[in-house]
Amino acid sequence: MRVERARYFLAAVETGSLRAAAARCGVSQPALGQQIALLEEELDVVLLTRSRHGVRPTPAGQALIEPLRRLVAAEEAVRESAMESSGTYRGRVQIGGVTVTVETIIAPVVGRLRQYHPGLRFAVREGASAAVEADVLDGALDFGVVTMPAGPPAPGLRRIPLISAPVGAYVPTDHPLAGRDRIQWRDLATWPIVTMRAGTVMWETLHRHVPAPDVVVQAMSARTVKVMVGQGAGVGILARFDTSADIADVVWLPLSDAEPVHLCLTQRQDSRPSPSALIVRRLIRARAGELAVS
């Protein structure tokens, strides 16, 4: 079986259109349709129902979506392993991330790869999750490692969950809340708040749970939030990720009624990453796994 035919079928399912699938895959619509027909012949099943409104999978096609996705992923893994064993990683990989993922996930992976593959070059862009995802969708970034937004991904984007972390509050050790084991969102209603800037997942999370919070500082990074808390600016709202930005005389209190924050790897559904980007992506997932068990 030619794996490329599986890619074409999956693109048709995800876009709902042979024309859109052909544009995504960089081939003509007749060529894509012919390859899907050959796949149907090879598997001896009808995979797609075609109509003037587009295409959708038949029951047989629906049942084969996940196996074919695994087939495509397996081919990518083989290519990654081959490239890794040959030691020929070169070129530039463009990655986006929020500040915490750049420090805890992306930077360790870049350092490791640079040690063994000096021909690699990286462009790392920091920003809010929504901005990173927009750049991934536009093709300006190979992929991003972000805090998962509450809403679904934009059409054409895929999110791969990595790790989760609890949400809580940072307060000075002499703060009235510091003696508690845990707090709730309602406990924050009367306190000045320091959190990530507008447009971030943490900003949106805070405003979903606390009506009209008194946000006195909008920060660009988790480090700035912690520093501001240490200087008495307010109560800091963050997810708990271990970073190098730990500040003395500040404690973290879990919010017992807060949902955890999830980090994810975001990429285009039709992405055809370079071998170098593939190994970076694989090591990012491995690094997230290390953090999950640490």
Automatic annotation (TrEMBL):
What Gene Ontology molecular function terms does this protein carry?
DNA binding; DNA-binding transcription factor activity
Concerning Gene3D superfamilies, the annotation shows: Periplasmic binding protein-like II, Winged helix-like DNA-binding domain superfamily/Winged helix DNA-binding domain
GO cellular component, alphabetical, reads: protein-DNA complex
Q: Which UniProt keywords apply?
A: DNA-binding, Transcription, Transcription regulation
Database matches in CDD domains: PBP2_LTTR_substrate (cd05466)
Q: Which family does it belong to?
A: Belongs to the LysR transcriptional regulatory family.
Q: What is this protein called?
A: DNA-binding transcriptional LysR family regulator
The scientific name of the source species is Nonomuraea fuscirosea
